[in-house]
Design a protein that fits this description.
Elements lengths: L14 H8 L2 H41 L3 H37 L2 H7 L4 H25 L1 H17 L7 E13 L5 E14 L4 E11 L2 E13 L4 E13 L4 E12 L4 H7 L9 H14 L2 H16 L2 H15 L6 H27 L5 H24 L1
Helix pairs in contact: 2-3, 2-5, 3-5, 3-6, 3-10, 3-11, 5-10, 8-9, 9-12, 10-12, 11-12
Length: 395
């Protein structure tokens, strides 16, 4: 006969108690030891990066170009997240080298192995922390870094140009397609519009030619000196142009000359021109949307560059896991690693990692690697090296 207990007497589920039953004392000890060196690395590597990459340039602009000090400080703070994101993998490497090196030098790892703890089990806390830092780094690079970089660029541009547009995008080409169902039931993609602008100065498109095939039996050609997007009307205001109406048999139906004409056309060409910003100012989703836009224009150089940058942004957070594995396996060896020695070894490994980034980019430019292999090459090499070292240590 089964015995049932009142629900009030059943112990409630406690996630922390459940997690504590899985994590051993060794796991909690090693994980706790990794925290402080990791935070030290974030501060140290961020300070180095921001000093070399931003601070010197801002000081030069303040002294030579008259950039206001308050604006320089604002840009400095906005650029900090970018270097913090790069510091996460480096800090993971440094903390694992220091902690596991100290445990090995103090013979604590030897004592654990003599109790039957395998090398795989010893590095498990570093792998777990590396996975957690990977997730945090990915979210940080997607949610905070692009927006901060974009705002920093806008603040600097406004301060330098006094609010006037300072860029020109040339040869903007956009093709729009529509899906048509054929009598046999098949769907076919047909060209609906072709939009070409000679240049965009930040305010207006200039030298426009639009071929419109969206209406059956009637084609439209618009040639205009300039055009501007009307946000209130969600339409284009064209200036000083001509509209040619052409029948399907090629004969002219009508010719209309105008000084100003408003047409309901998509604003996608404007998005293509205005989205020509650095990949560091875009999230992965924004890069993917931008790729869809520029693929219609056929700018292969820009397309290839953005495909590579998207893969690099995907791969960078996983360097936290790779560096954690490399640092732990190198630190497990019988030696004592001080903070200075760990920092120096970290710099050597990091320089090697970024050299592999350059190698991957070069192989991609020569067509040897595709975007995925070129973007993931340093991370895959680091993961492979860590796995190889771990296997060798366990033999």
């Amino acid at each position: 006969m089964a015995t049932s207990f009142p629900s009030a007497n059943k112990p409630s589920f406690n996630p922390m108690h459940w997690l504590g039953s899985i994590l051993t004392l060794m796991d909690r000890y090693i994980t706790g030891e990794l925290i402080m060196p990791f935070l030290f690395g974030v501060v140290a590597f961020t300070s180095i990066g921001v000093s070399i990459g931003v601070l010197l340039d801002l000081l030069r602009r303040v002294t030579e170009s008259g950039l206001p000090f308050t604006t320089a400080m604002q840009i400095f703070m906005l650029k900090l997240p970018y270097f913090v994101g790069f510091a996460f993998p480096m800090s993971m490497l440094l903390s694992c080298l220091m902690v596991y090196g100290r445990l090995s030098g103090d013979s604590e790892l030897i004592a654990l192995r003599s109790c039957g703890v395998s090398v795989y089990r010893l590095v498990a806390p570093a792998i777990a922390v590396g996975l957690l830092v990977t997730l945090v780094n990915f979210a940080f690079n997607e949610a905070i870094v692009p927006a901060a970089n974009r705002q920093a660029a806008e603040v600097l541009e406004y301060a330098v140009t006094k609010g006037q547009p300072s860029f020109t995008e040339r040869n903007i080409l956009y093709q729009e397609f529509r899906t048509v169902r054929q009598p046999n039931g098949r769907r076919e993609e047909l060209l609906s519009r072709t939009f070409y602008a000679r240049e965009y100065d930040g305010q207006r498109m200039k030298g426009l030619t639009i071929l419109d095939f969206s209406k059956d039996g009637l084609n439209q050609i618009v040639a205009s000196e300039s055009a501007a997007w009307n946000g209130e009307q969600q339409a284009w205001d064209f200036f000083n142009g001509t509209i040619y109406l052409v029948a399907s048999d090629g004969s002219y139906r009508n010719i209309v000359r105008f000084e100003q004409q408003q047409l309901k056309l998509p604003r996608t060409p404007l998005d293509i021109a205005k989205n020509s910003r650095d990949a560091d100012e875009m999230s992965i989703a924004e890069i993917n949307d931008y790729l869809k836009l520029i693929e219609q224009g056929g700018n292969q150089r820009e397309i290839r560059k953005m495909r590579l940058r998207m893969q690099q942004k995907l791969a960078l957070p996983f360097a936290c896991l790779a560096f954690g594995l490399v640092g732990a396996t190198m630190g497990v060896r019988p030696q004592r690693t001080s903070r200075a020695a760990g920092f120096g070894l970290s710099l050597i490994i990091i320089v090697s990692y970024y050299l592999l980034i350059i190698v991957g980019q070069g192989l991609y430019q020569f067509g040897v690697f595709n975007a995925f292999l070129a973007g993931w090459l340093p991370t895959l090499v680091a993961l492979g090296a860590g796995a190889f070292l771990l296997f060798r240590l366990n033999r």
